[in-house]
Amino acid sequence: MYRIEEVAQKTKLTKRALRYYEELGLVSPSGRTDSGYRMYTDSDVEQILHVKDIRDLLGASLAEIKDMVELGRFYEEQRDYYNLHYKDRELEGPELLRRIDMLQTLEDTLTTQRTFLQTKMARMEELLKSYDEKLERIVGKKHELESKHQGGNN
């Protein structure tokens, strides 16, 4: 288990940011000492790094990150329930319909997360395309001027 200072070093976040993320429900320490100090597990640190990746790599807002984290938790709860009650069991009638509904819920949850990521990626691709177009114009203009300069020096 790690104290908040160690987690701040591992994640390169401030203690204040970690507390704020906890306030928003994005992360939570697995426990506290008798003195009330937050204690984090390796799994907690992974979750914090996941949140940080969503923020940094995707440029997601904290509200978007919260939605993604909540969807992720919901997915895990549903998956665990499915595995506990339905996986590898022969089911018929109403049980089979509940199993299908559960799989639909899992599919919908992942589709929502996937759509969010696709939207972010599409925006990044558009931005990259605009930079490529600008770069292409600059390189073209530079070559044009270099040709003029070399033609004038002969």
Helix-strand layout with pairing:
Layout: E1 2-3, H1 4-11, H2 15-24, E2 31-32, E3 38-40, H3 42-58, H4 62-85, H5 93-152
Antiparallel strand pairs: 1-3, 2-3
Helix pairs in contact: 4-5
Find the structural class using helix and strand composition.
mainly alpha
Q: If strands are numbered along the chain, what order do they take across the biggest sheet? A: 1-3-2
User: Approximately what portion of the residues adopt beta-strand conformation?
Assistant: under 5%
Instruction: Report the count of strand segments.
Output: 3
C-alpha Rg, in Å?
Answer: 25 Å
| Major sheet attributes | 3 strands, antiparallel
Percent helix = over 70%
Mean pLDDT: 88
Broad shape: flat
Total number of helical segments? 5
Unreliable sequence segments: none
The string of secondary-structure elements, in order, is EHHEEHHH
First-to-last CA distance: 73 Å
Account of the protein in words:
By secondary structure, the protein is mainly α. Helix content is 77%, strand content 5%. It has helices spanning 4-11, 15-24, 42-58, 62-85, 93-152; strands spanning 2-3, 31-32, 38-40. α4 packs antiparallel against α5 (93-152). The protein is flat, with a radius of gyration of 25 Å. The mean pLDDT is 88.
